[in-house]
Design the sequence.
């Protein structure tokens, strides 16, 4: 599940640990710095409604601890080798801009969410 490292993982503990258990009321609880416990109703294919929000919050915290900053932006590499970060609120046209760049030879890295890394060199 989500607690196992993904392909390409550089080693160490997974960024997030998810523990599932069964109960009578669906719920999500934070039980540590990077651990979340999900209680689901047996034989129900429904996760608690706040699960995506809790999971995103934990992922964001993990990113920030690793000096990574998740943005609501698209990223493309132009044929010249320059990178473009296309930021804007939902509905602003990021995906349309990415598709227009792709038809002109740009390489698409992401269409909606991009994680930026900061280094001690300031890059």
Sequence:
């Amino acid at each position: 599940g989500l607690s196992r490292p993904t392909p390409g993982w550089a080693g160490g503990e997974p960024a997030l640990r998810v523990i599932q258990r069964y109960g009578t009321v669906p719920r999500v609880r934070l039980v540590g710095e990077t651990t979340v416990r999900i209680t689901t109703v047996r034989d129900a294919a429904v996760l608690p409604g706040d699960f995506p929000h809790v999971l995103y919050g934990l992922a964001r915290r993990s990113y920030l601890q690793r000096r990574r900053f998740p943005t609501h932006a698209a990223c493309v590499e132009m044929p010249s080798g320059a990178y473009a970060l296309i930021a804007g609120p939902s509905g602003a046209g990021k995906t349309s801009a990415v598709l227009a760049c792709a038809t002109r030879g740009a390489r698409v890295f992401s269409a909606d969410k991009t994680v930026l890394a900061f280094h001690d060199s300031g890059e």
In short: DSSP finds two helices and eight strands in the chain. The mean pLDDT is 75. Residues 51-65 form the longest helix (15 residues).
